[in-house]
Fold this protein.
Amino acid sequence: MTTMTIPRVYAVLDALAGAGCPYWIGGGWGVDALVGRQTRAHRDLDLALPADQESAALEALAALGYLVETDWRPVRVEVAEPGGGRVDLHPIVFDEDGAARQADLDGGSFHYPKECFTTGVIDGRRVPCLSAEQQVAFHDGYQPREVDVLDLRELNRLLAREP
């Protein structure tokens, strides 16, 4: 498996920041940001971002060599670079109260409560990410893969520590 390494993660985050695109890390890297250390190898980097910033994000990633590989817009779009880096973009639309929604494949939507937008740490760097509660909610409704089981174990440890 080609992995999304810390240098690749930083390159993507820096490119998005340079383009003025806010983002929040989800998926395996999001779990690791909450834990504060890398817990496993990652195939990709999952990012929630404002839907109105999707074009700017795709342009910034194209400048790094990333090309659209999977296009399920408005649900998600995955880009890959020849060296093996992958980024899965999840466009979200914010409500007036700070909550957000992401379209799903069945015509419904995933809810992002305003409290789910938080920060974590990847290799000593503070990064925006999604909360442990939100990450657990994303694992609902399907048979977990081995990586999901590992992520849920870490998330449950985090949640057990919270008051």
